[in-house]
Amino acid sequence: MGFFILAAGKCERFGAPKFLFPYGGIPLLKKLFQECLLVNPEYTYIITGTYHRAVASKINEERLIYNPDHAEGMASSLRLVSKISAQLGLDAVVIILSDQPFVNHHMFEELIRCHIEGYEVISFEKAGEPCPPSLFGKSYYKKLISLKGDIGAKKIIKEAARKKIIKGYDHLLEDFDNIWEYLRLASKDPPEGG
Q1: Residue 40 domain-assigned?
Q2: Structural domain for 71, as ranges
Q3: Is residue 114 part of a domain?
Q4: For residue 23, what is the domain's CATH number?
Q5: 98 φ/ψ angles, rounded to the nearest 5 degrees
Q6: Strand, coil or helix: 125
């Protein structure tokens, strides 16, 4: 199983690489990376793009994968993740966003537990909609590779036959798109649960 944190975007609404802003005294991306390593020390990677050099200054470059098509949007990163996972022979992939400061290793363990139970697509739910982190079994790599544009995998999740949607984690799925939202989240203690 592979863990991939998506950090290839331009962060246009934020105006800076928001995933490198500090949370709990370290860059948010590094915090998420460390949470992943607690569960999957072997196959954890970060997909980079616009801010590759800035990310490389904070994270071991061996774990970085540059997306040359990052300007297209999120679909290009999902395609790259799927191709790499297929090449490595991984039975599933976990997709993690880089702007959710409260996502933690307990949530990753929950995704894995559901996959062991036989679910091929697992995602959390936020405000009634599928929300990363999400897991896709290898039978869904082709669907992820078919994505185009600046879209995620929400449609694939909704249409999946053998899926599990995990509810009750809204408080841990908050993200931020501007400096004011970042300051609000950065000033909060991590919510309990998860």
Answers
A1: no
A2: 2-34+54-186
A3: yes
A4: 3.90.550.10
A5: -100, 10
A6: strand
The count of C-alpha atoms lying within 13 angstroms of the C-alpha of 127, restricted to the half-sphere facing its C-beta, is: 3
The residues facing 172 across adjacent strands are none
Give how many domains the chain has, as a whole number.
1
* CA distance linking residue 154 with residue 129, whole number of Å: 8
Q: Tell me the sheet residues that pair with 26.
A: 23
Count CB atoms within 10 A of the CB of residue 4. 24
Q: pLDDT, tens digit, for every residue of 113-145?
A: 999 999 999 999 999 999 999 999 999 999 999
Regarding beta strands 64-66 and 44-48, do their DSSP bridges make them parallel or antiparallel, or are they unpaired? parallel
The predicted pLDDT at position 194 comes to 60
pLDDT in tens, 79-102: 999 999 999 999 999 999 999 999
The pLDDT tens digits for 9-45 are: 999 889 899 999 999 889 999 999 999 999 999 999 9
Residue type (1 letter), 147? L
Residue 138 lies in a domain: yes
Is 141 buried (19+), middle (13-18) or exposed (0-12) by CB count in 10 A?
Answer: buried
Q: Has residue 142 been placed in a domain?
A: yes
Contact yes or no for 77/150 (Cβ under 8 A): no
Given the DSSP bridges, would you call strands 22-23 and 129-137 parallel, antiparallel or unpaired?
A: unpaired
**Integer Cα distance of 14 and 118 in angstroms:** 39
Q: Which of 83, 179, 169 is nearest to 131 (CA)?
A: 169
